[in-house]
Amino acid sequence: MAGHDTAETRSEAEWRRELTPEQYRVLREHGTERPGTSPLNHEKRAGTFVCAGCGQPLFESGTKYESGSGWPSFYAPLEGAVETQTDRSFFMTRTEVHCARCKGHLGHVFDDGPAPTGLRYCMNGAAMGFEPQE
Description:
Layout: H1 12-18, H2 21-27, E1 47-51, E2 57-60, E3 64-65, E4 73-74, E5 82-87, E6 94-99, E7 105-110, E8 120-123, E9 128-132
Antiparallel strand pairs: 1-2, 1-9, 3-4, 4-8, 5-6, 6-7, 7-8
InterPro entries: Met_Sox_Rdtase_MsrB, Met_Sox_Rdtase_MsrB_dom, Mss4-like_sf
EC number: 1.8.4.12
Protein name: peptide-methionine (R)-S-oxide reductase
């Protein structure tokens, strides 16, 4: 995608033009896709999961695992790829995960994941793309 460095300065109209309605709802409006609906749940090839908004590499395929949650899950992001903040919506306190570059909402992180981190980065497939390893 063109303009990686200007991702944070895009207007909402530009975001709407560049993203599908589902990507916009998840990335820009903190939406959540229905569980089990993302083709990325079944992605098993070697490669990198990237932000659908700006192309930032987020997760290596080797950190993906089947959590049974219905969303693509990973035990660790790439260094510096994501940021977190407290999300107190829906009468719960959760830790929201967003892209460090464009601040697009990706999902949430929970402390019920596998070793070595014990974390489950529960991501919306609509918020990501997949780039297979050459």
